[in-house]
């Protein structure tokens, strides 16, 4: 169970990070981007870490949310 209200960094919660990446991940995973859909959880994790705002460390809850959503 994901705790969307857990604060990660300066008021940013798990839910806020998910919300900030949601549209981009959806575009990628539906094949509407120049970037190919993620084939593994490791690829997804690397992308999330590089593209989330402000905080450039892996957030397992964010990665797990998208990995479960897209069956990675």
How does this structure look, described?
This protein has 72 residues and is mainly alpha-helical. 51% of the residues lie in helices and 7% in strands. It has helices at residues 14-29, 41-51, 60-69, and strands at residues 7-9, 12-13. Strands 1-2 form a two-stranded antiparallel sheet. The chain starts with 6 loop residues before the first strand and ends with a helix. The mean pLDDT is 95.
Beta-strand fraction estimate: 5-15%
Give the rounded overall mean pLDDT. Answer: 95
Shape: globular
Quickly give the structural class: mainly alpha
Q: What is the string of SSEs from the N terminus onward?
A: EEHHH
Q: How many angstroms separate the termini?
A: 17 Å
Helix content: 40-55%
Strand order of the main beta sheet, please? Answer: 1-2
Low-pLDDT parts are none
Number of strands: 2
Largest sheet: 2 strands, antiparallel
> Roughly how many Å is the radius of gyration?
12 Å
Instruction: Give the helix tally.
Output: 3
